[in-house]
Amino acid sequence: MAPIVHHADAELAAITWLRPRLPEVTVCSERPLPDAFAAALPIVQITRLPSPPSHRWVHDIARMQWRVMVPESWERPGAIDLAAFVGAQVAAMSQAVIPVLEGVYTPAGTVAVTQVARQTAASEAEDPNDSVIAFAFTAELYLRPLRVA
Known about the structure:
It contains three helices and nine strands; from the N terminus they run E-H-E-H-E-E-H-E-E-E-E-E.
């Protein structure tokens, strides 16, 4: 019987990587609810996008979006500065080994990011909240699979 191959949650791996590097920033995969949104700023929201096919035995190619949102009081230079810092941290994920917690169906273990590819520069993004300045960029993370059984 062939081993069961499971790919780790790419969003969780990226959040686990960024949180200790951005202690004053809310790093999440889901946008905070409206009543908590202003207090959570600045925010880096990480979302997995539709991704290219991967080879299940070798790697998962996770196309990701990083959305940086700051209060309007930071102005564009502050937003650009934070987005550039986040971009540098994402580029540094290449060759990183990131510990992940056990999930309902996934064992605890480590996620190996073998490569960060096709990273775009951050560009201004629209936001439904007029008092927020947002910038976003994308990159692909090549992740080694976890073998479950």
